[in-house]
Amino acid sequence: MKILVCGLPGSGKTWLSERLVKYLNCAWYNADFVRKYANDWDFEMEGRMRQANRMKTFADFEKNYGRWVVCDFVAPTEKTRTAFDPDYLIWLDTIEEGRVVSEKLQQLNEINNLPFDAKSLSTSKKFDDTTKMFEKPSNANEHITSFLNDDEIKQLAAKIKNV
User: Fold this and answer.
1) Which residues 6+ apart lie within 8 Å of 144 measured at CB?
2) 25 three-state secondary structure
3) What's 51-102 look like in SS3?
4) Residue (of 5, 10, 50) closest to 30 by Cα position
5) Tens digit of pLDDT for each residue in 42-90?
């Protein structure tokens, strides 16, 4: 099963995914790590589609071998979500506009040769663009509007397992 955790930057995608995979005992691909190893920091629509297809390739590999996988990335448009083709879609709708959390900033600062200044990322046009372009998913299996505690994450995992 391919599970997509999407939402604006700073909505808690990575935080939730990190905990969810422990209960699902499955693979996990994080967009920032995938971008890092692909050395692809293009956030224009073409770059976003490339990233959706890249994430799909990793997820399909896992699924083709009978394994479950969680992928967390913004997937801001219906087109990017359709390209990824999730079996289960979790939309984190916990913030009004994209932002950079301190943990993410620290991770980005550890990456060499970024084509942007990580410190100024949160005030960059790219974050504003991401917020403006984000289309609310029409087919989310889960629409989460607040941060979940461990018991709620465990319940979510159990629900997914019963699909």
Assistant:
1) 16, 90, 91, 92, 93, 94
2) coil
3) HHHHHHHHHHHHHHCCCCEEEECCCCCHHHHHHHCCCEEEEECCCCCCCCCH
4) 5
5) 888 999 999 999 999 999 999 999 999 999 999 999 999 999 999 999 9
**Apex 104 CA angle, 50 and 39, nearest 5:** 35
Q: Model pTM? A: 0.85
> pLDDT at residue 120 above 90?
no
CA-to-CA distance for 6 and 91, rounded, in angstroms? Answer: 5
Mean pLDDT across 3-16: 94
Stated as kind and residue range, the H or E segment containing 8 is: none
Q: What angle separates helix 31-38 from helix 45-64, to the nearest 10 degrees?
A: 110
What are phi and psi for residue 65, nearest 5 degrees? -100, 15
For residue 30, the 8-state DSSP code is E
Mapping DSSP to helix (H, G, I), strand (E, B) and coil, where does residue 2 land?
strand
The mean pLDDT value of the chain amounts to 88
